[in-house]
Amino acid sequence: MPPEPTPALTPATAGPTPIRILLADDHALVRRGVRLILDREPDLQVVAEAGDGAEAVEEARKQDIDLAILDIAMPRMTGLQATRELSALKPDLRILMLTMHDNEQYLFQALKAGACGYVLKSVADRDLVAACRAAMRNEPFLYPGAVTALIRNYLDRVRHGEEDADRLLTPREEEVLKLVAEGHSSKEIAEMLFISVKTVHRHRANLLHKLGLRDRLELTRYAIRSGLIEP
């Protein structure tokens, strides 16, 4: 009898695609250490590195990434500036700040710029992996001291009866406001945010109505005061 044919090997079932990460820090040794923490996790993969904020933005243009981890203090363009640029460039990109600064001012600026998490380098080996996974679940991640700062800030505002107009805006309206203030046309904004020009016009009309403003110039001034763009 002829020998039975050898059965074909069934390929192993492929696991979920790892989270693709851009890592930006101006110290190569820090990047190497953080990369070791991340790459040992099967669901995390560093696919690009950058030595400053401007390079991080360029890498984000070239690479298909899900998550950016940025240092705050970097040359040419800080992590805060890069966060604003990346949020406009890729609205769906998740961004974490990884910093040595346990500083309320930096924390609030990072969150306003578009970061969804704030991790201290001193405890990166403990917190960073959890922060990455939380970010991809669209959940904020803050170290305990940061949570305390946010609560204290909120209670202070309530105590003083302050009403922040920013709370009136949806995240999408803030994105449109930033791009309008940066001088982009409705067509350009529609292409950048993957929405229709008609939707851009509707968001712009809502912004003017909610904020009690009249035109692009007043929107731009408001965006500067709110820290959405640099003066």
UniProtKB/TrEMBL annotation:
SMART domains: HTH_LUXR, REC. Pfam families: GerE, Response_reg. Residues 162-227 form the HTH luxR-type domain. One of its GO terms (biological process) is phosphorelay signal transduction system. Residues 20-136 form the Response regulatory domain. The keyword Hydrolase does not apply. Gene3D superfamilies: 3.40.50.2300. Keywords: DNA-binding, Phosphoprotein, Transcription, Transcription regulation. InterPro entries: CheY-like_superfamily, NreC/VraR/RcsB-like_REC, Sig_transdc_resp-reg_C-effctor, Sig_transdc_resp-reg_receiver, Tscrpt_reg_LuxR_C, WalR-like. It comes from the Bacteria. The modification 4-aspartylphosphate is found at residue 71. GO terms for molecular function: DNA binding. PROSITE patterns: HTH_LUXR_1, HTH_LUXR_2, RESPONSE_REGULATORY. PANTHER family: TRANSCRIPTIONAL REGULATORY PROTEIN NARL-RELATED (PTHR43214:SF24), TWO-COMPONENT RESPONSE REGULATOR (PTHR43214). This is Response regulator transcription factor. The lineage of its organism: Bacteria, Bacillati, Actinomycetota, Actinomycetes, Kitasatosporales.
